[in-house]
Amino acid sequence: MTVKLKLFSLVTLCMPLLFATTIANASTLDGVSLIINKEPITLYDVYKYSQRFKLSKKEALDILVRQKLEDSEIKKQGIDVTNFEVDQYIENLAISNKMNQYDFLNMIRSKNIEIADYKEDIKKKLQRDKLYKKIVNTKMQQASDAELLAYFNENQNEFSQAGSFDVTIYTSTNQQSLATIQNNPMSAMSDVELKDVSFEATKMDQNLAALLNKTAVGKFSTIVKSDSNYVMFFVKDKHDIKTVSFADAKNYIYSKLAEGKEQKSIEEYFEKLKSSANIQVVRAP
To answer: Parallel, antiparallel, or unpaired: how do β-strands 39-42 and 32-36 relate?
Structure first.
């Protein structure tokens, strides 16, 4: 009887402690880690994201802060995505995986992913894509004609179209061998074959014509994959060259500059938003 009473007393004493520990753990997970522009990010949000994407808690928190900023901008700018756009995106994904949409969604279900959640994730992705595009377009509108003209003048090969080309074709199964010759044209590589050829622009593949047009005379082209081999071209001469006018090339240059500045423009935009945001750190994860 005494033993039972002692055991009962021990259990009774431990229960409040266990209960308190459980509450403490729950409150820790439910606690707020950070508040950004009055929007909270909980410790559980950070934990769940870090577990899902195999990230450190700091990396997860940084991404969640960025997402809060993006969500705020999407709402502020009224960026929306329709159900049709979501379905069209899924349809394109299915086609790229050589499946119909029905089988593709069944494959998603087989991974224990709710279709409603999957579609919501896609909607958010498309909203972010629209936001990013808007940011880049706004940034590029600030590009002056002087900047566009400077690119035009410094990259004349991109805007010259030859009627024909005299080239030496370098072919090898080893990409590194071609790279070695690019860096040192006097290198002798036993696994590289050379062949002198002349091409007429109107009778050749247009992708190859574009590659040769942007390669200066006396220079090697970039190395490209061709079936089981690697190929590069040494441009010996170009004939009947016609130069595209700056006015005709302007849109192309605009797009080219946007490609190079896209990621930088987006990062700079959100760095400015973050620096001006009202961020209150409550508890580090």
So the answer is: antiparallel
Look at the domain 163-240 and name its fold.
Chitinase A; domain 3 (3.10.50)
Confidence band for 142, pLDDT divided at 50, 70 and 90: low
What's this model's pTM, rounded to 2 decimal places? Answer: 0.54
What residue spans in the chain does CATH classification 1.10.4030.10 cover?
A: 78-142
Whole-angstrom Cα distance, residue 185 to residue 188?
8
Looking at domain 78-142, its CATH superfamily turns out to be Porin chaperone SurA, peptide-binding domain (1.10.4030.10)
Q: Are 280 and 76 contacting, i.e. CB atoms less than 8 angstroms apart?
A: no
Q: What three-state secondary structure class fits 25?
A: helix
The token pair at 152 is 């035009």
184 token code pair = 């040192």
Sequence-distant contacts of 174-183: CB under 8 A, at least 24 apart: 174/230, 175/223, 175/230, 178/223, 178/230, 178/231, 178/232, 179/223, 181/220, 181/232, 182/220, 182/223, 182/232
Chain region(s) in the chain for CATH 3.10.50.40? 163-240
Cα–Cα distance, 1 to 217 (Å, whole number)? 102
User: What is 147-161 written as a DSSP string?
Assistant: HHHHHHHHTGGGGEE
Q: What is the pLDDT of residues 25-61, one digit of tens each?
A: 444 556 888 899 989 999 999 999 999 889 999 999 9
d(CA 257, CA 264): 11
